[in-house]
Write a structure and sequence with these properties.
- Chain A: GO terms for molecular function: ATP binding; ATP hydrolysis activity.
- The complex is a heterodimer of chains A (257) and B (294).
- Chain A is α/β, with parallel strands linked by helices and 257 residues long.
- Chain A has a six-stranded mixed β-sheet with strand order 6-7-8-3-9-10, with helices on both faces. In chain A, strands 2-1-4-5 form a four-stranded antiparallel β-sheet, with helices on one face.
- In chain A, helix 7 links the parallel strand 7 and strand 8.
- Chain B is an alpha/beta fold and 294 residues long.
- Chain B has a single domain, classed as Rossmann fold (3-Layer(aba) Sandwich).
- Helix content of chain B is 34%, strand content 24%.
- Chain B has a six-stranded mixed β-sheet, sandwiched between helices.
- Chain B starts with a strand and ends in an 11-residue tail after the last helix.
- The interface between A and B is large, with 61 and 56 residues.
- The complex binds adenosine-5'-triphosphate (ATP) (2 copies) and magnesium ion (2 copies).
- One adenosine-5'-triphosphate binds next to strand 2 and helix 1 of chain B.
Amino acid sequence: MTVLEARGLIKDYRGIRAVDDVSLTLEHGRTVALVGQSGSGKSTMARLLLQLERPTSGEILLDGEPVARRGKRLTLYRRTVQMVFQDPFASLNPYHDVEHHLARPIRLHNPKMSADDVHRRVLHLLERVRLTPAAHVARRRPHELSGGQRQRVAIARALAPEPGVLIADEPVSMLDVSIRLGVLNLLATLQREEDLGVLYITHDLATARHFSDDILVMYRGKIVERGPADSVILDPQHDYTKTLADAAPNPDRRLAR
Amino acid sequence: MSRPVLTIEDFSVDYLIEPPVHAVRDVSLTLHSGEVLGLAGESGCGKSTLAYGIVRLLKPPASIVGGRVVFHDRDGGDTDWNRLGPEQLRAARWDTISMVFQGAMNSLNPVISIRDQFEDVFVTHRPRMSRRERRQRCGDLLERVGVDRNRLKSYPHELSGGMRQRVMIAMAMALEPQIMIMDEPTTALDVVVQREILREISRLRDELGFAVVFITHDLPLLLEISDRIAVMRDGAIVELGAAKELYTNPRHDYTRQLLASFPSLTGDRGSFVRGALDDRLLALDAVDVAEENP
Ligand SMILES: Nc1ncnc2c1ncn2[C@@H]1O[C@H](COP(=O)(O)OP(=O)(O)OP(=O)(O)O)[C@@H](O)[C@H]1O
Ligand SMILES: Nc1ncnc2c1ncn2[C@@H]1O[C@H](COP(=O)(O)OP(=O)(O)OP(=O)(O)O)[C@@H](O)[C@H]1O
Ligand SMILES: [Mg+2]
Ligand SMILES: [Mg+2]
């Protein structure tokens, strides 16, 4: 039952305000989509929420408590808030097999677990993301898997420490369309099963609408519109959201010309 | 029909591993000046291998096992790329054909500024260009893809994913080549920026008459921007036709499947329900156990 809250986050880089007074709440069991222009600050928000970088100002609260910057509570935070990134090629090490990628976080979070139990957890995780036969997949190395399969390994790795919140930065934009939907559908299923709070960062409005409860629209560092997914997409209020919705691919429109 | 700029004849590429992978099989295509040719197909069907083969940047174990690629220049001269030496190929590559590689945004050198990497294209290919002109051109090109010119001084990690991708597109445009091959060039871009870039590409195309091969699995996008679309499957082209024809009257089952698999922005949710696992979707990406070596 995790709640992650950001209050008034600001992040400045050398004269650029990448994130400008953003507040949001991620609650267990809900998916929030963060959409917006390239360079609007989405990935910066992800890095702030993951505590990979410190905000210039503002605060982050986990279950109502200001987050810790060090020590045991930081370790707990890192375990609770997990991530999946865009590039499944870059995020997995080509020299290690799948088993290694999953066993590491399991051991890190369960230092006393026996080797057999770790192995069993690895197989179980692979089954959760439907990478079967699990014993076989565990021995493969990243380049022996498709992009979609690699991304499912990344999801399994994120689930390994039993997190409460998952931050997914463009998790499917490098994947094939058919595979993209499979991975999103799987993410949505796992989210329900694990009661996760999910932040789904994307530039794809259609999947944002179909796979999330709420949508936040970011523009030049600020959230310019927020609301239930359907109403943001079907009845956009801010000019930028309208532009974004109008620009979505629509073959009928071109071919009608 | 306008003049052909590139003819691909019975082109085949294998990965010479055990067992060999026939990644591109007997592909024949003619690309015309001023044309945007879309190349679509599911992951692993051979799109990138074909693209690398055309510009002859394949690395072992890949090997061209058949066919040829002929480039036709403006004055009617033909160049068979198979016959060029490494030096000539290197010169021709950015000058006549440029390429935006899949995932290229992650291939910028992290410790060299955008300016130095960008100017290097001109230093190498336009050695007589003055430093001042180089700077000017780099800034102009960056602005064409919607990135502020003062970002030249940035290092790759200081740019967002979409900005890095646009830097790569700008670099491919730099020498005004006659052919641009773009492999998934806009995966990191939102639709608004995507459209600005596509508009820029078609503006340049009208101005300079170059041809574009646009590779993506995003069929709706292709339908909007391409003149013709080739659909690839298992290394071969299974369907090739005018974009409109392909959309209204797809002949191949696979094309129909690709067209149907897209959730629409404003329509109902169709078969893409959240919460219930749809095994059919993942079945498309099942692990192939037969491939495993004993
Ligand atoms: N380490 C950094 N140093 C300097 N500037 C940075 C750094 N990281 C990000 N920025 C800047 O912050 C702004 C927001 O970048 P961010 O990566 O968050 O955008 P984004 O919304 O994720 O974009 P995209 O959709 O292209 O991935 C950009 O102007 C970017 O150049
Ligand atoms: N270095 C390699 N060694 C062996 N096989 C390879 C290698 N690179 C690619 N292949 C195989 O060649 C086939 C074609 O791959 P290619 O990357 O060209 O597909 P693609 O259509 O570009 O896919 P995607 O949409 O995922 O980019 C695939 O079966 C792939 O597994
Ligand atoms: Mg980003
Ligand atoms: Mg490819």
